[in-house]
Amino acid sequence: MTDVQARPGTSGDAEQVDHVVIRFAGDSGDGMQLTGERFTTASAVFGNDLATLPDFPAEIRAPTGTIFGVSAFQVQIADHDITNPGDAPSVLVCMNPAALASELHRLEPGGTVIVNSDEFDERNLTKAGYTENPLENDSLAGYKVILVPMTSLTKESVKESGVKPRDAERSKNFFALGLVTWMYTRPLDATLTWIKERFGKNEMVMNANIMAFKAGHAYGETTELAGNRYSIKPAPQTAGVYTSINGNTALAWGLVAAGQLAKLPVFLGSYPITPASDILHELSKHKSFGIRTLQAEDEIAGIGTALGAAFGGQLAVTTTSGPGVALKSETMSLAISLELPLVIVDIQRGGPSTGLPTKTEAADLMMAMYGRHGEAPLPIVASFSPSQCFDAAIEACRIALKYRTPVILLSDGYLANGSEPWLIPDVSTLPDISTTFATEPNHVNETTGEPEHWPYVRDPETLARSWALPGTPGLMHRIGGIEKEDGSGNISYTPENHSHMVDTRAAKVAGIAKDIPEVAVTGDAADADLLVLGWGSTWGAIVTAVDRQRAKGRKVAQAHLTHLNPFPANLGEVLRRYPKVLVPEMNTGHLAKLVRAEFLVDARTVSKVRGVPFTAAEVEAAIEAELERKL
Amino acid sequence: MTDVQVPLTSRKDWQSDQEVRWCPGCGDYSILTAVQLLMPDLGVNRENTVFVSGIGCAARFPYYMNTYGMHSIHGRAPAIATGLAVARPDLDVWVVGGDGDLLSIGGNHLIHALRRNVNLTILMFNNQIYGLTKGQFSPTSALGKVTKSSPMGSLDAPFNPLAVALGAGATFVARTHDMDRPHMQEMMRRAHAHKGAAFVEIFQNCNVFNDGQFETLTTRANRDDMLIPLEHGQPVRFGKEKEKGVIISSDGAAHIVNVADVGEDAILIHDEARPEPGLAFMLAHLASSVNEPTPVGVFRAVETTEYADANAKQLAAAQERSGAGDLSALLHSLPTWEV
């Protein structure tokens, strides 16, 4: 064990590195998510590229000091373009023994572990399952260990603030943040400004946090943790204004934008569910945009109220996670039958049932495709990075409005909570997704000779039906879930009509393929031995893995789907172009099954269902194995 | 403010061109007629009127009205109508459903629509049976009811629909029956005029699966003695000579008495506007079956904040405070940096 505790009197310049992966881990009550987010923001403002992976337990406040109460936050910061939060962390910050016990296995060999040594008393060690103090034996051999008595130093540093001794140690996450801020030469201003804004209402707490943060920084500075200071240059980025954004915020803003671009008020009917609730929270803040949010009595009422609002002509959305999608299934089928625009957002999590509510998975694709009664196809859009959730939301709304159809938008827990820098778009460059409503009758009643409105008269190009809003004189009509005659919309049970309507609803969705971009192939598009096909949040790990494999001389191409129903028009041709197709998925092979069925290609699955995203190394290993497999 | 002219209409204008397909003799016909005849008198436009229903015999109702309409999913009409009424407060939204639709599969949505006090006029046709699925007991069927799915008698204690509505905090609760058009229309008129969620229970005869269920109450010969008309500010009395009445006795319960025995002054004066629902709740429980004298009329009518109105006020207040939403400003609202 290398003890690099304080060595006063020595000095050293920061060593320049091109990236670092830091993992903050502590008890659920230790504020690790907040610490990680602040470090991320400071790094983003500094100009690094970054990607984050919050990893927290389902329990709101698990018993203190236990392994299952450990909350962690991983962030990769780099001086170049990165797409994922890194594989193994090179630095692990552990606030207690449980964090060390739970997270040490992730640390790369020779990595640095910063430990709050104050918490390693017998009680906490026992709770974490240690029979011996790992700081006092050789269990940390092979790592660089930095012992810092953070709790006592924090208590000492905040004395002047006036907070009670019992509350003083609650600032220790800011001490840790200050220390890491020093180690990675982050600017202090952004964090100080944030503390002042966030805690301004309680001056005592604000001062305590500022004092702890500065003390942590000063601890690095004065004790000179020699050889432990690094700098990471800003990443070269396209010129413009950036912000650091997570997937749920980006998705919510995408919905706000869609309302503006469609010139329609947004209506969200939603029932709280992890990890989707933050979209409800975010949209409920933006009433000045005319956005109505209704927290419904259940998932069914969430989509039911949204469907009612859609009938009334609003841009209707419901947000949920897998169990909620199951409950909404019947209403989605009604929306398909009514041919009304509606966006169903599914922030996927580990299942089945309650499963892993705070952990990520992408195993709802088959449910999105087929999880309804009857022949009930609907378009599916999937986002692939936190910031791209903004564009995906606009695209889902565009398709819903243009084709009068419910659309499922798939994201997942990793995208929802993960952050990355986002080049804020110029709003004038965003697409116009406005639609038109019927204003005049489109038919003459054969019996009465009176003009009337037929709700199922279709646009010949899109097959979208005529949409007349309640309140429009002369266009009164009734729609319902019973099969209706194409054109008039009157109830019809004839075999010919039902067959025609099933085909028409399917053709309408299939026809959207003409209206979405072809899938792009990157990497060795011309002569790859293997195509890696992905969808959703696997994108970041796949991009890194393919880059590394190509750097090692292997011929690999990559394609990533943002539209899963219908598939891009060229997908079949692309898949058949390569001898091997590998599909990494956070499920047991949903997309692979779909492309095998649709295109008769021998797509192979690499599956991960462990509640955490793929690492690039895992995808690399799968690529290598597949390349070696004899055909 | 412009004066909106509502053109004069007749029953015919409110009838759609669709053939009505209920069983001949069904009580639904008389309810449909009552509504179609009432609409021209309500001072509303057809295009601003929407009927939303779930599934069941009653739920076919929207197809027969020349208004906007949606025939939706079993039980979900109150939720769908809530979304429509909140999104479009300019519309007149009606919900039509049966006892199975609104109290069994849709019970949850009904109570939440009522407690939110969304501006909906909810007509619940109560025939105490499942009709469209051909004769199973419903959540309002009496205990012991013999049906296809309960050959030895139902084991389910029934819901008291008005007590459910009152328990959910409904601000307007009324009861009527399909044999008395003027009374039905008066209840509908009152329910429509109510700002908030209005719940009207209509005893409705299913002549195929539960024929004559309400005859003890609703035939002309029985009405005087078996229906207790509730009128605001009036003593609660009934009988051919108004010889019977309702009192609240010292045990805190409502009882039916001979007026002559207790004196006129002892008879309960109905007050539909009482802020607390206790009296209405007691009257809702006065009869425990169709064999006992049963109150009809408006049990409760209190004005309080309507949901869509409150929602619109929040939106207006937000715009007042920060101006109309500015998308570019929103996208720059987190910490930003320039490259």
The backbone outline of chain A, from C-alpha atoms, is: globular
**What value does the Rg of chain B take, in angstroms?**
22 Å
* Silhouette of chain B: globular
**SSE pattern of chain B, N- to C-terminal:** HEEHEHHEHEHEHHEEEEHHEHHE
Which CATH top level class of the largest domain in chain A fits? Alpha Beta
Residue-averaged pLDDT of chain B, rounded?
A: 96
Determine the strand fraction of chain B and express it as a percent band.
15-25%
The helicity of chain B comes to 25-40%
Let me know the CATH homologous superfamily of one domain in chain B. Thiamin diphosphate (ThDP)-binding fold, Pyr/PP domains
Helix/sheet category of chain A:
alpha/beta
What fraction, in percent, of the residue positions of chain A are helical?
25-40%
Q: Provide the structure class of chain B.
A: alpha/beta
Uncertain segments of chain B are none
Largest sheet of chain B: 8 strands, mixed
Count of DSSP strands of chain A: 26
The gyration radius over C-alpha positions of chain A equals 27 Å
Percent strand of chain A equals 15-25%
Structure write-up:
- The complex is a heterodimer of chains A (631) and B (339).
- In chain A, 35% of the residues lie in helices and 20% in strands.
- Chain A has 20 helices and 26 strands.
- Chain A has a seven-stranded mixed β-sheet, with helices on both faces.
- Chain B has 339 residues and is of the alpha/beta class.
- Chain B has a domain at 11-213 and 305-315: Rossmann fold (3-Layer(aba) Sandwich), CATH 3.40.50.970.
- The chains are: A alpha/beta (631), B alpha/beta (339).
- Chains A and B meet through helix 1, strand 10, helix 9, helix 11 and helix 12 of A and strand 2, helix 2, helix 4, helix 11 and helix 12 of B.
